[in-house]
Input
Amino acid sequence: MLERNRERNLGATGHRRDRNFERNSPAIETHATDWDATGWRTFYDERAAIAEHDGGLNRKRAERVAYETTIAEWCHLHPPNDDPDRCAACGSPIPLARGEWRPLSDNATVHYGGRWGLGCFRAHGANRRNEAIAALDLLDLTMPPELKV
Ligand SMILES: [Zn+2]
Output
C-alpha cells in the first residue's frame, strides 16, 4: 500500500508530480480531455454498480453516490482558474497583504474572511458544481431526480 501511494505521488519517473508535470503529460492530458458521453456514462455506471453491490446501497442511493462522484471527477479533470492573483469566484484581485483569501485544494484562490466573509468560498464551490452538472447534462448524464432541489 505504501509503495502504491509512493508511486502515485512520485510517478513512474520518481519525480514528484506537480501541476506542471500533469499538465504537460500527454497521457494525463488525453485522459482528461478525451472522455466522451460513453466514457462518462461508463464511469458513472461503474460507480453506481460498486456502490450498490459492494457498498450494499439500494439502487437510488447508489445512483446518487455515483452522480456526486462523477461531479467530483469532472471537477478534478477540469481545473478552475488558478490565477493566484484573482479570485476564482468573483474575478476581483486578491488583496494578499490583508490575508483575506485562501488557496483551495483545487488550486483556485478565493476571497475568504474579513469583508468577504464566506461568499466567494461558497460561490466557487457552487459554480464548480454547476459547471460539472451542465457539462454532464450536455453528455446526457443527467442528475438523478432525488438530487434536484
Ligand atoms: Zn471573490
In short: Residues 87, 89-90, 92, 110-111, 120 surround zinc ion (CB under 6 Å).
